[in-house]
Amino acid sequence: MLPNFFNDLFTAALFLLIWQGYEWRARRLRSVNSLSGLMDQMRTQWMRTMLKRSPRIMDAQLQSALLTGVGFFASTTIVAIGGLLAMIGNIERLSEVLEGMGLHSGIPWTYKLVAIAMVFVYAFFQFAWAYRLFNYLVIMMGAQPDPIDADKLDLTANRLGRMHAVAALHFSSGLRAFYFAIALISWLAGDVALIVVTLMITLLLYWRDDKTPFLVVLREFDHE
Questions:
Q1: Fewer CB within 10 Å: N-end or C-end of the chain?
Q2: Is there a contact between 50 and 56 (Cβ–Cβ < 8 Å)?
Q3: How crowded is residue 209: how many other Cβ atoms within 10 Å of its Cβ?
Q4: What is the pLDDT of residues 101-111, one digit of tens each?
Q5: What's the pTM value of the predicted model, to 2 decimals?
Q6: Is the preceding peptide bond at 108 cis, omega within 30 degrees of 0?
Q7: How many domains does the chain have?
Q8: Is 21 helix (H, G, I), strand (E, B) or coil?
């Protein structure tokens, strides 16, 4: 049992290293020619166009659509946390089922479920904060005069774009945590399963952030 205990601890530490390492990389690449970085430039362009547009009803609708997406993921994490708490409350039955399937754990099953729940909790707080920041941004957008002074347009658009990027940063962080929480569920199937699924999730995120055809087209916009 003791070797399994240390194996579980080592695997958990490796999972945390991979997750936070990718998180660091994703945040660092926001300032370069990456998908997130180019989209941040588009946010500023959107704010610039919004300030020139009258009326700004379409911009309010677009921002509302973004809020709907953030709210959906925040609600989904709550459901996931609730399900995990229910499993913890019925841990004896769950342990019997898992061990009946030939699965064993070096640390108590409860601790694994708590670890999964904590990652979902982290994702929820990121989504919730992003939702609040996007709401603040709606207020800031509505507070801008129509028409805006030409000499203030670029400065205001840059500030609003940076605020929008900060909110999106928290949403993206929550989304990555959501993905890695799903990977952590595979820990119930063993240490090897966790590492394999975590690497698969990391490669999937890398492809979506750096190799997606969407990024190729977006770079064409950036160089026009």
A1: C
A2: yes
A3: 18
A4: 877 777 888 99
A5: 0.90
A6: no
A7: 1
A8: helix
127-172 residue pLDDT tens: 999 999 999 999 999 999 988 888 899 999 999 999 999 999 999 9
Could you identify the residue written with the tokens 């609600």? 75
Within a domain: 20: no
SS3 46: helix
Cβ-Cβ contacts under 8 Å for 109 (sequence gap 6 or more) = 91, 94, 95, 98, 188
Q: What is the band of 8 on the pLDDT scale with cuts at 50, 70, 90?
A: confident
179-205 CB burial, b ≥16 within 10 A, e <16: bbbbbbbbbbebbebbbebbeebbeeb
- For residue 212, tell me if it sits in a domain: yes
**Measured between alpha carbons, how far is 177 from 15 in angstroms, rounded to an integer?**
12
For residue 112, is it within any domain? yes
